[in-house]
Amino acid sequence: MNTELSELNPISDGIEDRLGRSPDAIPRILILGGTGEAAELAAQLASRNDLEFISSFAGRVSCPKYPIGVVRVGGFGGIEGLISYLIMESISVVVDATHPFAVGISRNTEAACARLGLPLVALVRPTWQKQKDDLWHEVITYVDAAEFVNKKRGRVFLSIGRQEVGSFAACNDAWFLIRAIEAPTGQLPQHHEILLQRGPFDLKGELQLLRDYSIDHIVSKNSGGSGTYTKIEAARLLQIPVVMVERPTKHTVPTVDTVGEVVTELAELLTRPVQDEKQWKDVK
């Protein structure tokens, strides 16, 4: 059962006092974003007048797609910097809707919220699941993926973003089609072509791409979601093997799968009374 956000009230005086909020202040939510789910959440919250939210981007892409509402860009400076920001902005709840492979910010966020006693809602989209006709070779690291495709000496579609391309720099026996939003800046494999494109991608286009470049293998991380899943569907139809990089462990706290669950969690958290002032941890 969905809870209407119009029912939200400010969280209890206990944590408001610690973070410098006035008793009648409306809740402020920090959305750690950069994903489609974060943008969807911002769109759902934008029409509310009983809460405020800020969407935060890491700033790794020079021309990101901004969601509706207030946006900040850039890092926080580690755990201590994030703690300072949360206090300065009087944040009531943090929503971590970052990419499933963005481990560092998620771990820092858990630590910062634990130090402040702030509620944290962690949204992690479900992984892609291997289907009957999929030809997956699952690996733990990008280095494992690089070693595998280099031994095959074929034509590889490298679709992992630009940050991890350096893991394939020593691959001299394979050819790579590297697709990214912006050009990689680090070391690249000897034989390659760069294709600058931003998703989502349709199935027809992905099929044509794989055929045009005579791709033998695809390297992908198991990001989940629909935005880039069409390459997996295309690989299935063309019977092209996919080297799938498994997700790292991102959270130690419970997670939710959908934006709807985040909205429900927010409604519950922001109306929950503080049972015991001792539950709020001192900032050290």
UniProtKB/TrEMBL annotation:
The keyword Oxidoreductase applies. This is Cobalt-precorrin-6A reductase. The keyword Transferase does not apply. It comes from Tunturiibacter psychrotolerans. It comes from the Bacteria. Keywords: Cobalamin biosynthesis, Oxidoreductase. Its EC number is 1.3.1.106. PROSITE patterns: COBK_CBIJ. One of its GO terms (biological process) is cobalamin biosynthetic process. Pathway: Cofactor biosynthesis; adenosylcobalamin biosynthesis. It holds the Pfam family CbiJ. PANTHER family: COBALT-PRECORRIN-6A REDUCTASE. Transmembrane segments: none annotated. It is an enzyme of class 1 (oxidoreductase).
